[in-house]
Amino acid sequence: MAAGRGGCRPGAVVALLLLSVLTPASAASAAALPVVINTWAFRTAAETAWRVLESGGSELDAVERGCGQCEIDQCDGSVGYGGSPDESGETTLDAMIMDGNTMEVGAVADLRHVKNAIGVARKVIEYTKHTLLVGESASLFAVRMGFPYEDLTTQKSLSLYSEWLNQSCQPNYWKNVVPDSSTSCGPYKRREEVTYKKQTSSERNIHNHDTIGMVVIGVSGTVASGTSTNGAIHKLPGRVGDSPIAGAGSYADSTAGGAAATGDGDIMMRFLPSYQAVEYMRMGTDPTVACQKVISRIQKYAPKFFGAIICANTTGSYGAACNKIPGFTQFHFMVSSPLLSRPTEQVVDCI
Fold first, then answer.
1. Residue 211 known to be catalytic
2. In angstroms, what CA-CA distances link 218 with 138, 300, 341?
3. What CA–CA distance (Å, rounded) separates 269 from 334?
């Protein structure tokens, strides 16, 4: 029976109720400030960053505290201490933070013995004229800044390392070496004849590499961004991925917006995806479309790469995109906004 004047059909009522409960990423064009968006379903990181803003903290404060919460929580074992041991069994950290007003960046890579990597990155901005510090020298800087010198190894990371050794060091990141890196632990030497193969898939296990990337945009449109990760598990010592590289791991520009990437950094960093996404938004491209364009660009060269990106512009509109591969068909991320009653997990279908 048709609804009466001013009424609506039962089906429409159900639809409205569903819309009030679910916030699909595809409908994320509604804009409001401030906004906090971060990669993956790292809820406590989103809640921490939002509380910082609500209490009057700056956008940089929110990014630092939000990503720092993931370092404390050891989010998915891929952020913070005690995860992703390298070939020598050591956990090292990469992080960056960027001020979209001044375009200053502070970053650390291959940081050892210091747990609060993004905190150290913030100190690079505040107390040096540099942008990126690496390795043991970054650790010494951190100690001078008051950070405790600690062991980043845990029983879990030792167990991961032991299991890897028992599996003939598989998988690893070597190529064109002898002995055969697909069947042994080395030590390796270079093969005289180099075989070039087109990279067709990501070596990264999609279940153990979940960098936190965060973008915060304040009520005045000020943008800040940051990342923190312990990198690719079983990486070569000294390897640095996309996370601490400005324009790759994240990028912030208060005249346009911010973006942050996650996934196979060895592939993604070659395309400066976060910088590219912000430039698309500067030209007026919707954040969701900007993210999709970045993913599509990388797909042309590495169709089976593992990766995703989040984007937000200075009006508070946001979006995300990911590359569809077996086992990874949707990307989960967190959003905090005045339009939401609380930090909310959202999902986007990969392309």
1. yes
2. 30, 35, 17
3. 23
Strand residues in 85-149 grouped as ranges (E): 93-99, 105-111, 132-134
| pLDDT tens profile 166-177 | 999 999 999 999
Q: What is the pTM of this model?
A: 0.89
CA atoms of 76 and 131, how far apart (whole Å): 28
How far apart (Å, rounded) are the C-alpha atoms in residues 253 and 276?
12
Per-residue pLDDT reduced to its tens digit, 235-265: 999 999 999 999 999 999 999 999 999 999 9
Rg over alpha carbons for the chain, rounded to the nearest Å, is 21
Type of residue found at 241:
G
* Residue of 39, 48, 211, 222 marked active site: 211
Question: Where does residue 226 rank: exposed (0-12), middle (13-18), buried (19+ CB within 10 A)?
Answer: buried
Helix axes 59-73, 43-54, angle to 10 degrees: 150
